[in-house]
Amino acid sequence: MLNDVRRYIARHRLLAGNGKYIVALSGGADSVALLLLLLDMGYEVEAAHCNFKLRGDESDRDEAFVRELCENRGVALHLVHFDTRAYAELHKVSIEMAARQLRYAYFEQLRRDIDARGICVAHHREDSVETLLINLIRGTGVHGLCGIRPRNGYILRPLLCVGRKEITDYLASKQQPYVTDSTNLVDDVVRNKVRLNILPLLRDINQGVVGNIQATAERMAEVAAIYDQAVSEAKRRVVNEGKVRKADVTSESLLFEILRDYGFPPPVAGQVFSRLDAPPGRVFSSPTHDLLIDRDCLIIEPCEELPHPMRIPECGIYIYGKLRLRFEVNTIGGSFSPSRAKNAVSIDGYAARFPLIIRPAAEGDRFTPFGMRGSKLVSDYLTDRKRTLFDKRRQLVVTDAGNRILWLVGERIDNRFRITQETKQVLNISYESICSTD
What is the CA radius of gyration of the chain? Predict the structure, then answer.
């Protein structure tokens, strides 16, 4: 077993001869074997033990065992106690997830504090197979079929090449005791159900099932590397500033990989893919982004909170969101010419009454586009201009004291406020984009 682990470490370049490593030491057979193996190989290691205060006297027993083991072996030990239940309640996560988050956050902080090169955890072959089966049961992509990988950042897993029986046989040969977590013997969580019920049934079919599945997982890891390269090239080709042409979405798998970058859960890819030929306008949301199925493309943008209306009591310069707006009134001169810039307008200063309001366009807003006589819904005007639903959501309007729209910002003024031969005073409104740090 020592030689198998040594070869596995070399094959995956997990550990270097120089430098310090942390061993996550629970006191169970796996972590105890990992500690002894690394010591036998001559690595410099320190141990870390987490007491999650979840099993009463048994948790304290494990801590006492780890203390004695490290003292006898001359290994520096780092101990931490957690109120796991309180953390789970505060963060609205399961006890299992709370323990995982606390454990790995502590390990990483400790790694930095003692300048260790990595954190060695004792996952073995059965752990990897259990993970693959759980992913398969829940539904997974290519990466979920790879099981547990030997390296994940600073997390190192030197024992993935050996099984549970090899570990216990190794400890027996060294007459090394260990502790048993009683919660692992009850099939009350998914992993325990797989370990205690499903794997034994699979072994009845084929005694070599664990090794066979793990070998398949390793082959799938190679497949996943090729898949990742192909997906990366495809994303560079089809994703352009958050837009994806529908014609370029050649498979649900590609769409899944694209959407995963924006925080969308796996089922959304199937829902979007099935609606590519449906009428446009459907919006999907992740915690960070919105996706719009538009006419010819998918548009993905960061979630934005609409700004509140802002009152403009008089002329001056105002900051509204990411815009700097200038309002000024001028007496009309003989050489006056209305602005034709997209970001500036000139309207009849007497027709518009202060205070003005700048706000997002609202459902039911109407105005009379410049050059027309009848009024039109702002949303219909923007549709005619082929603006997307996201464009409509961002569209700003400037209204006067009578709640009449003066300007569809960046688009068009209201015909009722146009400059005429009778105009004596001009209200000039302009804007420019500013950085969020201004």
Answer: 32
Compute φ and ψ for 92, nearest 5 degrees: 55, 50
Q: How far apart are CA 51 and CA 47, in angstroms?
A: 13
Residue 84 near residue 98, CB atoms below 8 Å: yes
Residue pair 13/19 in contact by the 8 Å Cβ criterion? no
- How far, CA to CA in Å, does 55 sit from each of 3, 32, 132, 181, 372? 36, 20, 28, 9, 77
Question: Where do we find the tokens 């539904």?
Answer: 139
Residues 6+ apart with CB under 8 A from 172: none
Phi, psi angle pair for 405, to nearest 5°: -75, 120
Name residues whose C-beta falls within 8 Å of residue 96's C-beta, 6 or more positions apart in sequence: 189
Residues 6+ apart with CB under 8 A from 115: 20
Report the distance separating Cα 253 and Cα 270, nearest Å.
9
What is the model's pTM?
A: 0.71
For residue 395, give both structure tokens.
Answer: 């569209």
φ and ψ of 169, to 5 deg: -65, -40
What is residue 437's predicted lDDT score, i.e. its pLDDT?
44
Amino acid at 410: G
Please give the structure tokens belonging to residue 77.
Answer: 């030990």
Q: Encoding tokens for residue 253? A: 């798998």
Neighbouring residues of 405: CB distance < 8 A, sequence distance ≥ 6: 365, 366, 367, 378, 397, 398, 399, 414
Closest CA to 75 of 53, 104, 43, 105: 43
Q: What does the chain come to in residues?
A: 438
Are 318 and 434 in contact by the 8 Å Cβ rule? The answer is no
Closest CA to 370 of 426, 423, 418: 418
Cα 355–Cα 361–Cα 362 angle in degrees, nearest 5: 105
pLDDT of the residue at 334: 62
Find out whether 285 and 266 touch, Cβ atoms under 8 Å.
no
3-state secondary structure of 329: strand
Find out whether 278 and 293 touch, Cβ atoms under 8 Å.
yes
Number of Cβ within a 10 Å radius of residue 11:
10
Question: Any idea which residue has 């146009």 for tokens?
Answer: 418
In this predicted structure, what is the pLDDT of residue 86?
96
Which is it for strands 356-360 and 310-312: parallel, antiparallel or unpaired? antiparallel
In this prediction, the residues of the chain whose per-residue pLDDT falls under 70 are 334-336, 435-438
C-alpha span between 72 and 223 (Å, rounded): 45
CA 232, CA 376: separation in Å to the nearest integer? 45
Task: Write down the pLDDT at residue 50.
Answer: 97
